[in-house]
């Protein structure tokens, strides 16, 4: 089998690395074609905990990876000014408290609150407390410990991550070709892609083509004409301006997403700088105004001119069509509000490995891939819509539009039963566990009016005692954590490089 | 509109397992809250030979309820079950075991069954179920409680065969000890409010039991949800041809097998469930194909046991209510859904219904949102169980027998057809939301009945044959070695060893 990957962005190199790791070279060869002329859209710098599994699959050394990509740790996302100006909540990679007698902790909090105790939900989440105190440590394996109630992800430079994966893949024997595709040859009978012709005249044949060429979808769209499903009706943002700035102040162990007049602004802390961007809707603001808003809201001096990225939220009608599989932006786009782009590329690559076809592609296999990918995109879509929709205290036109728009039925049902009693039904496939839904609902002002009656199983005194004990345990444990900045510095310390540098110094002196 | 009224009084009307599972579950979840639980017990329909074969989740339920396994099993003459043995479901394939375990062990990131499929295509003689520790134990007349060593190879669980009368007595006793209000009687009429909700139950002694929320645990009669509320029935007869159960029993088997059996024959199948004091027998068949007298005769022949004289035949019809919760009335167990007896889901169906109710127990009389959410999720859970059962019949290979030919030809529900298509294409098992049966159980069931995938995960080809053989031998060696150390069921139950068996077995 010959696999050809077109495009060397994050999606391209993640696919390349995953396939190289999964398959022995005699079983299947992987080749990647990228053009140095075509820029990489590096918006996905904040990740989800699943990226950790991906790196482990490649047996990547975590400290080395962090050094080479200027990475920092991430425990969640802080959302500012969403339900109304002045608000702040954190969606953590973890649960609130710990279940008691099989009943979710959240339900006990709801009961206390409805009995008149104005307790802050954030006080009962270990990862949130760590975020608020700018701390970080590795989670514990001991399930009983409060320190096991979270996981973590990274912030990194996506361009450097792609480079890192390129080095890794080439080290495993992957063949990379620099070049631009000028022609695609299709099989006259089956319509399968047979070969790509490069500008150099080289013809690259393959059995399976992975389209990681980004928004334009050179193979899946331009060649195979597979359509696109537009989700702008729910997710109206279609532009982003991105700009790095100097790093100033504390190294936050979280991403920040601040609602603005016509979209929202991200802030992603890296070791050496801070990444920023303003995702906005061209229906509701101008590029000039957006640049003004962005530049007025940076921690430190901008390190470049803002770069414009245009996009449309939606997904490819079929990501796998004939012998072409679109991964990354060629397959779909959802704004980085919940840091899902790298995850979506990762999960597509992993489904592809799980459903790897023979040379004769059974349509049941590609159909199943598409079903799974569709579920992933739809789950994220609904979750993002919730962020836009539940913004009762914002009155700018974009937010008014989002508050009044018709949201998908699947989300209407979820919101209704949550509002009623904080109930979240766990689903099997796709992102976002009940804990995530709870964090965003409550953070955006959807607070249940009732609670699960199992939470009545404690006396009022016992309930408050347990809540206070939980908070106490969190406070004590968080106090003992190192700061995020210290942890990153120590974790990334390269003893070998340091001693080499010291030796060089000695030699120079001697 | 009137202020919504807080739900404080829940009344459970029913009998047998549905009644007592429901009240125990409620009691456990809400004992310290302001919810008052009243059980109205209808006359039992249980008979001496009745058995509840369970799924593996039952053990977790008992420990959640704080029920002691030993005492519970003694009172219900219960035995442990490592799985089910299916014989004669295919004329050309040997009997197979469907254990409550995983089969083989994953290696090089690929699930075991893919290696087995390839090896089998290349002439391997070992059957799929040879790679289950539980199957090996069952075949050798042994039982074991999983420990660290067995867990290192595979997940192994067990289920029970519970004597129905004894089991219900234990559940009832526990519920009463824990303070559930108990009445006996028969229902004369369900009293209704203007909006259709039930306000109280008029019993045949003239007393009225009022309540805010009513649970119908009356069994297939569905006295409240079906009869009073008028919620209709959706028939599943297009997928389940059988409509009669013959119930009886035979003397106990010695030594006690650690599994149940389902043997197919011309008009249905016969199930044998070992208990300590007897062997429960259920023959499930299609009345269009066999009369009652013939059914009695056949049961003796197929079981090859000396059956007790007073066998009874009960009609049933697989299907479910179009809603499980209507107004302020919710049905559990057979009042909500009558499953085909295959795969022993009767008790489990009650637990599914109750566990969803516990987390959605209505706050007040304004319960439309809970109802919608409950109906949505429980419908999905029920359909996934039903789909699993349909496969048993659909995949039969008993050719030239009308009932079985009919089953092979039936059109499947879309989601199930899709699942089988993808499995057949490449041995990949799709799991939907709200599945009861986990992937390994589906895979063992499908392969057991002979649905062999056309291809396997190509990653298998990356592992050289010598390595695969070495791994297979290692697994079979581990199984052999482990089973040698296991003891017969009698020893686990504290019974004297069966005649002719030494302590070493």
Automatic annotation (TrEMBL), chain A:
GO molecular function annotations of the record: monooxygenase activity; nucleotide binding
Binding sites annotated in the UniProt record for FAD: 8-11, 181, 329, 342
Residues given in the record as 7-chloro-L-tryptophan binding sites: 74
InterPro entries in UniProt: FAD/NAD-bd_sf, Flavin-dep_Halogenase_NPB, Flavin_halogenase, Trp_halogen
Keyword Cell membrane listed: no
Alphabetical keyword list: FAD, Flavoprotein, Nucleotide-binding
Protein name in the entry: Tryptophan halogenase
TrEMBL record, chain B:
Pfam families: Trp_halogenase
InterPro entries xref list: FAD/NAD-bd_sf, Flavin-dep_Halogenase_NPB, Flavin_halogenase, Trp_halogen
SUPFAM superfamilies assigned: FAD/NAD(P)-binding domain (SSF51905)
GO MF annotation terms: monooxygenase activity
PANTHER family referenced in this protein's UniProt entry, alphabetically: FAD-BINDING PROTEIN (PTHR43747), FLAVIN-DEPENDENT TRYPTOPHAN HALOGENASE (PTHR43747:SF4)
Name of the protein this chain belongs to: Tryptophan halogenase
Naturally occurring in which organism (per UniProt): Asticcacaulis benevestitus DSM 16100 = ATCC BAA-896
